[in-house]
Amino acid sequence: MSKNASSGRTDSGMEHFGYRQSLDRSIGAFGSFAAGVSYISILTGTFQLFYFGYHTAGPAYLWSWPLVLVGQLAVALCFMELAAKYPLAGSVYNWSKLLGSRFVGWSSGWLMLTASVVSLSATVLALQLNLPRLWSGFQIIGDGSGPYDLAANAVILGSALILVTTVINALGVQLMAMINSSGVFIELIAACLILIILAAHSVRGPEVFLSTHGYGGGTGSGFLSVFLVASLASGYVMYGFDTASSLGEETLEPRRTAPRAILRAVLASFVIGGGILMFAILAVPDLHDPKIGSNDGGLQYIVESVMWGPLAKVFLVCIVVAVSVCALAVHTAAIRMTFAMARDNALPFGEKLARVNPKTQTPLVPAILVGVIAILILVINVGQPQIFTVLTSIAVIMIYLAYLMVTWPMLRKRLKGEWPPKDLAAGGYFSMGRWGLIVNVVAVLWGAGMALNLAWPREAIYGTPWFNTWGAFVYIGAILGTGLLWFGLKGRHHIGTLASHAVIEGSQVAEGARHE
């Protein structure tokens, strides 16, 4: 065991959960914070989805940003308590298993794992929105006018980035954390500067957000219907803060560090991201410019419009950095989820997937496997971009459902008087105290409501034919059904901590032994 691993041993309590300390415990406070921020990725999400929110509901779509904050902050507060109690890799999987049951844990882990792999593919596509703007040479395939030029080129650029994130993750968590932290530092500085410059170029007042500007006028339910659709743009951004806790086994003093990192990641993303969205609308020269709400315009177009040419290019470089570290964080989270489930023999070929490279102290096979699958998924984007859009959308829904499989069992324990454990407050770790029940109820209602809103069959979002319109139910049903088929036929019969990862060599740890 490394020196770092030993130094964080008493705080981690790995032996208490029946696991050996096998990962490299070396991530500090900023590295933990950076993991959560980079997955949310202020610049990636806002620049990738601003056009959709604005096109759907106009300037007033911005009100969805604080709405999403309230819901996701409630979830984050629940996660903070859990991170203080259970600092384990693949946090959502382990939490739902410990709070609910082995079946609930496996289901949430499977949804989170598959969603993370698809999210990796979706994230790297953002390179296509930015790199050709910097230099036309990045448009490797065609000139962009062909029917498949953009989609095929996006696959080339995205695959190259996935190859890089695979290599970085394979070389160890210290390298990953160093690159990720550096990238997040650049992203935060750039985001703050973009916010300030946009604010300095404001040409209108905040009253613009108090009018519907005619959006939703032709629908039966008025602005509410288009607002609910536009809120998807904000809901697609502000998640992934659990990555800070998913690296709990590699974080120094994780019971104290991870909860703080989760809260700081959510609040920083809200403040800086919300500021950029607000001042972009206040600074845009013409609110009726169709480029604002188009896929080839959006926030990038506004930045280029109000900034001096070379400066806009510099900020586009920063956006590329943000996309890159976001992809790195998503890849890292998928690896930790794979490792956590495989260590419990909850995936096929569990022993191979859970094997930790003795030199780099990182799961090597999951790093490569996640990268290969993500590239294969990318290929779908070339000939079937609509199906890929549906898949990336339902990946977000699956993450919301996985979160719900944590907050709902947690609420049940609260109602039974079994949460929070007394040793949380006694140990000086984060606890919501008497506010816990109210916050937990909000988290459950928010998760269920947002999952339903995201999944609602809308042709404007998911397109046609019917299996795309109802894609949230069709594809999630197929993904979950395939996994449950394996779980029912084989998985449930041999799930248990692998001997190679158990505290006592040569024996499996019973499920109940990890439930306190």
Question: Briefly, what is this?
Answer:
The protein has 23 helices and no strands.
* CATH class placement: Mainly Alpha
How would the global form be characterised? globular
Query: What is the fold-level CATH name, i.e. the topology?
Result: Amino acid/polyamine transporter I
| Average pLDDT taken over every residue | 91
Overview of the structural elements:
This protein has 516 residues and is mainly α. It has one domain (3-8, 28-461): Amino acid/polyamine transporter I (Up-down Bundle), CATH 1.20.1740. The chain is built from 23 helices and no strands. The longest helix has 35 residues, at 309-343.
Characteristics:
single chain, 516 residues, mainly alpha, Amino acid/polyamine transporter I, 0% strand, globular, disordered C terminus
Blueprint of the fold:
Elements: H1 3-7, H2 9-12, H3 29-40, H4 42-57, H5 64-85, H6 91-99, H7 102-124, H8 127-134, H9 149-170, H10 173-200, H11 223-235, H12 243-246, H13 254-283, H14 298-306, H15 309-343, H16 350-353, H17 364-383, H18 385-415, H19 422-426, H20 436-455, H21 459-462, H22 466-469, H23 471-494
Helix pairs in contact: 3-10, 3-13, 3-15, 4-11, 4-13, 4-15, 5-13, 5-20, 6-7, 6-18, 7-9, 7-15, 7-17, 7-18, 7-23, 8-15, 9-15, 9-17, 10-13, 10-15, 14-15, 15-17, 17-18, 18-20, 18-23
